[in-house]
Amino acid sequence: MIKLSKRLRAIVNFCDKNKIIADIGTDHGFVPNFLYEEDYNRKIIATDISLNSLNKAIEFSELRGNKGKIEHIVCNGLEKIPPVDQIIIAGMGGILISKILDRDFEKARQAEKLILQPMQQVDYLRKFLYDKGFKILDEKIVFEDNKFFHIIVANYKAIKEEYRDIDLKVSKLLRNRKDKDLIEFLKYLINYNIFIIENIEGSSTRSIYKKDKLREENIELKEILDEVQK
């Protein structure tokens, strides 16, 4: 069995068996090879933006004895993949993931499940999903290598959900679930905001405004933390 990182293991745990799955920006191809070897799917597609990038995944498939079992496609985002049941986009920024989904919106809309793992800008990605009519079905926070990773599972429902600014930064779903990993993430956000406030120099209008906004955000974060810890 391929040994996956905690982050990648959490991603594959959201995949369902007997589905056609595409891993967009597959990098070394660990996820598609794991899915194939664990008999998760009817078909697995691995893509990357250039042949040079995709060759890493092709070589890993050959090393695992899986040559010809996984379809490898050079493409930008979803542009050359056929309609699939589930789409994985992991290890990119939230802005880039949003652009990939928006550029081939019809394919994203038709998928039963999007499994998304942004490395940054998770708030931007949540806003995109809400504004475009996607429903967030599940989420998970993984702490690994001193970093918090967010995994978002969504599909298209053509209903725009209402949200506040804080809902983009802190998952509503995990708050309602009183998720233990969310507690640690909230503590991190609060302490990080305090650090930024203490290191903003000067007394310009802009500096004062930024400090005030961070203090206001921390009030909301502390209220959420208290509620989740009950």
Automatic annotation (TrEMBL):
SUPFAM superfamilies: S-adenosyl-L-methionine-dependent methyltransferases. Keywords: Methyltransferase, Transferase. The keyword Methyltransferase applies. It comes from the Bacteria. It holds the Pfam family Methyltransf_18. One of its GO terms (molecular function) is tRNA (adenine(22)-N1)-methyltransferase activity. InterPro entries: SAM-dependent_MTases_sf (IPR029063), TrmK (IPR006901). PANTHER family: TRNA (ADENINE(22)-N(1))-METHYLTRANSFERASE. This is tRNA (Adenine(22)-N(1))-methyltransferase. It comes from Peptoniphilus lacrimalis.
